[in-house]
Amino acid sequence: MFRVLIAEDDDKARKLLERAMYDGGYEPLLARDGAEALEILDRKYVDVILLDLMMPKVDGFSLIDQLRRVNSEIPIIVVTARQSMEDKKRCFQLGADDYMTKPLDQEELLLRISALLRRAKISAEHRIEIGNTKLLYDSQLIVTGEETIELPPKEFLLLYKLLSTPNKIFTRRQLMDEIWDLDSESDERTVVVHVNRLRERFRDNPDFRIVTVRGLGYKAVKEEA
User: Fold this and answer.
1) Smallest Cα–Cα separation from 47: which of 17, 73, 12, 18?
2) Strand spans (E) along the chain
3) Distance between CA atoms of 163 and 10, rounded to whole angstroms?
């Protein structure tokens, strides 16, 4: 059973989150502030953190900062009533993985936790498996059945990004910022060219396809067996 650490100083909100975690099949661990959360993290393995921002002793901002400074990669979902873009920006810059505002939709929260756990597993294993297709991040190779394919680095990273979250739409700007250097002279047309190359290379692959979402960007879709 996955463990979810709930760091929330409001008793009612903490109990609601605890109930939601039980309903979702997770083991909740409860902390009333950031200091208690750190104590729990010292003693127990945690898979995901649900984190309020405004807490006594150690607030949510400080907790994110402390965890990321020691290279902790535990997925963190900020759960707060604060809705300003400045707060969101600060949290993501510190290293939060997701940001949700209260009141919460329980089903959406569980879906986001599930997605984060899957991405954390992919990150830890450095590999993705889609049907009979395997993407091996450390060697940057793709194995399909008995064939091994070596792609140019940018093509591999682009495909790895798309397949790490099937059905999620990525804009060309997002893909550009994450895969190409920020000081690169390339423009978004580069993403189009690389996507077209990937489509050509894997047009006969039975496990996935890359779909253009008109006006938005691209997504990878798993093919039904």
Assistant:
1) 73
2) 3-7, 27-31, 48-51, 76-80, 98-101, 127-130, 133-136, 141-144, 147-150, 170-171, 208-213, 217-222
3) 38
With a cut of 70, list the residues of the chain below it in pLDDT: 71, 181-186, 225
Give the pLDDT confidence score for residue 185 in this predicted structure. Answer: 64
Q: What is the pLDDT of residue 206?
A: 93
Residue-level pLDDT at 31: 95
**What b-and-e string marks burial along 21-37, b requiring 16 or more CB atoms within 10 Å of the CB?**
beebebebbbbbbbebb
Buried b (16+ CB within 10 A) or exposed e, 139-172: eeebbbeeeeeebeebbbbbbbbbbbbeeeebeb
Q: Mapping DSSP to helix (H, G, I), strand (E, B) and coil, where does residue 31 land? A: strand
Tokens 């929260």 belong to residue: 109
Per-residue confidence (pLDDT) for residue 181, from 0 to 100: 62
CB 54 within 8 A of CB 80: yes
pLDDT reported for residue 78: 95
Q: Which one, of 34, 21, 30, 124, lies nearest residue 75 by Cα?
A: 124
pLDDT score, position 2: 87
DSSP 81-136: S---HHHHHHHHHHT-SEEEESSPPHHHHHHHHHHHHHHHHHHHHTEEEETTEEEE
